[in-house]
UniProtKB/TrEMBL annotation:
Keyword Lyase: yes
CDD domains in the cross-refs: ADCL_like (cd01559)
Protein's name according to its UniProt entry: Aminodeoxychorismate lyase
UniProt cross-references to NCBIfam families, sorted A to Z: pabC_Proteo
Organism: Litchfieldella anticariensis (strain DSM 16096 / CECT 5854 / CIP 108499 / LMG 22089 / FP35)
Reactions catalysed according to its record: 4-amino-4-deoxychorismate = 4-aminobenzoate + pyruvate + H(+)
A Pfam family assignment: Aminotran_4
Source species, domain of life: Bacteria
Enzyme Commission identifier(s): 4.1.3.38
GO cellular component: cytosol
GO biological process, one term: 4-aminobenzoate biosynthetic process
Amino acid sequence: MLNGDTPLPLDDRGVTYGDGLFETVLVRDGQPYLWDYHMVRLLAGCQRLGIPAPARDELDPLPGRAGPGLHVFKLILTRGSGGRGYLPPASPESRLRWQYLPFAANEQRWREGVRVRHCALRLSIQPMLAGLKHLNRLENVLARREWSDPQTAEGLLCDHEGHLVEATCMNIFWRRRGVLETPRLERCGVAGTLRQALLEQLPMFEVDVGPGHLDEMEALWLGNSIQGIWPVTRLDNDEGKPLVEWKLTDVHREFQNVAQRLLGYPELPKVEKP
């Protein structure tokens, strides 16, 4: 198994077929956040795809090499080379690569919230890949190409059956009739590590909901394990025309601050009344 930030050969199956997995981990002064959640997801992906998993004693020291300050540690694991066409080798030799990138969270989006939009693209339903952070992310790339307005922070994605699933690179959360909910991810979508930690920390339910129900939501958030939680203040349709607006309240802050603590970010003050 090769290691480091060296290039992958052109015959690597991760390059040719997206045959692999990746994790992006927030690291502060060498301390990774939600590390065990990332490792559980990586191992689950290895088991489902049949890729040999690196040993934990090989992986655990890696985030500590990021050095002082805030970084994103990106880890890529591929099946390696070999096989005939799509047929993988009977005994694959997986490849591990990683990279450390300096990072600064967008604190303005924490405080002021974000504008998002619906995407026209619909996610394919494939339960075998649901929840995994695999390397084939072309659907997300196509969805992200749908807008270029810098005022739009994210795009919401539905599957082909019309269920809300996720944003292009974040999970979705909302409060409806006083209850916290998040989309069920048994058919498609990425089961984020922050999402899993919040499900364990809070009374939150996984549900199937269509986009037409978003105007019922008392609060809407997007989040992942790098950026934390962004409250949504405006939702547009897939042409950029406004559909729903929300005012920031202390309900938004309460949910955000659970995530802030999980990621070592500073807690946010209560919303100032006008």
